[in-house]
Amino acid sequence: MVGVSDEIGGAIAAGGPIPFERFMELALYGSDGFYTRADGGSAGRRGDFLTSAEVGPLFGAVLARFLDAEWERIGRPDPFTVVDAGAGPGTLARSVLAASPACAPALRYVAVEVSAAQRARHPDGVESTDGLPESPVDGVIVANELLDNLPLRLAVFDDGWREGFVDRDGDRYVERLSATFEPRPSVLPARAPVGARAPLVDRAASWVGDARARLRSGSLVVIDYGVARTSELAMRPWREWLRTYRGNERGGHYLAAPGSQDITTDVPFDQLPPPDAVRTQAQFLHRWGSRSWWRRASASGASSRRDRVSRHCACAAVSARPRHCSTRPGWAASSSPSGAPAEGRAPPSRIPRLGVTRCGSRNDRRRDRGSPGRAKRRDQAERTVRACTYRSSTPSQPGS
Known about the structure:
Elements: H1 4-15, E1 18-19, H2 20-29, H3 52-55, H4 58-73, E2 80-85, H5 91-98, E3 107-112, H6 116-119, E4 127-129, E5 137-144, E6 153-157, E7 161-169, E8 172-180, E9 197-200, H7 202-213, E10 215-227, H8 230-234, H9 238-241, E11 242-246, E12 249-250, E13 262-265, E14 267-268, E15 277-280, H10 281-288, H11 291-299, H12 303-313, E16 325-326, E17 331-333, E18 350-352, E19 358-359, H13 362-370, H14 374-381, E20 384-391
Parallel strand pairs: 2-3, 2-5, 3-4, 5-10, 10-14
Antiparallel strand pairs: 1-7, 6-7, 6-9, 7-8, 10-20, 11-12, 11-13, 15-20, 16-19, 17-18
C-alpha cells in the first residue's frame, strides 16, 4: 500500500505545490490516512480524542428524546431513518439504542463511517456504510463533530489574503503562498496581522447542502465547536483554532508527520448555509433533556455523568483565556505555487514552518499528559459548541 507521504509527494511531483485542502484530505482520508488505515485514529479514552458521545451515555439518551420528537413532528414515518454521519466506532449509536426511544419500532439507524476498521466495531442493529444514503429519507441526519474534520482551504494574510499551498523541501513539508485572492472572499476581513490565517470551509458548506437535500422530511442536526464569524479566527493566533491531536494529547505542527495525527479546526458558522435554529450544545441538551428527565437521571445515579456531559459540552460562549504559545525555530519563505500568477506579489514573507506548537501553560500541558482527553476537553471548554438544525423543505410544525 502507498504510504501517506508517498501519496502526498507524488501529488506534488506531478503538478507542483498542492492546496492545503488536498494535503489535509490525503493526510486524513488517503489510502493510508489517519482515519483510513487499519490502526487509524479513533474516538474514545484509548483513542486519539473524545467527543460528547464518549463522555457517557447521557448524550445519546438526550438525543434519543430529540429523535422521538422529530418522529412525532413528521408524522411517525416507518421507516424512520436516523443517519449518524461520522459515526466512528458506533458509540453514539449504542447510547441511542440503549435509551429505547419510542420511535424504536420504526427506527432504521444508519451509521456512516469512512474507516473500515471503525465500521467493524459498529453494534448490531445498525446499517454500517461509508456514505450517506442515496435515496431521500424521512428522519434525522446527525453530524456530531464531523465538519471540523473535513478538508479546508487555508487563507494566509501576507500583503493581502493568499491561499496556502504545501510543497516538499527534502524530507519535510513547507508552506507556499499563491497570489492574492481576486476577489477577496467576503468572509475574510480586509486587513489582518501578517501571517494570520483563516479557514475556508467550502467542503463543510457543500456537505451541509448535500445532506439536507437527502431529507424528504425531517431535520439535519450539525453539532460542532466554532465561532460565529470567520473574522474572529483571522484575528486569533492560528494555533488556537487549527489543531492536531493524537493519543488524546495535542499533536505537532499541521504539516508534520501527515497520517499520524488528527487535523481539526474551529468551524466558522458564517460559511455554512443559514440554519433554521441555532443553540449552544448545552441549550440543546437542556431543551431535550427536560427537568423531569434530569431528575430521573439523577435519581438513577447518573447525575455525575450528566455533569460531565454538560461540562464537556461547555457550550456557553467563553472567552479564550490568554495562553503561552511557543514554536521551535524554523521558517520558510513563501512563494507562489507553480503555475499561479505572481503579478503584484509582495516580497516573500517569513512564515512559520514545521514548528512543534506548544499551547497552554506548562502546568496545563503537564496535566494534559496525565489525563486522556484532557487536552481536547480543555480546548473545547474555551470555545462555543453549537447545535445547528436544518429542516427539510416539507412544511411542518415549527420546533427545534
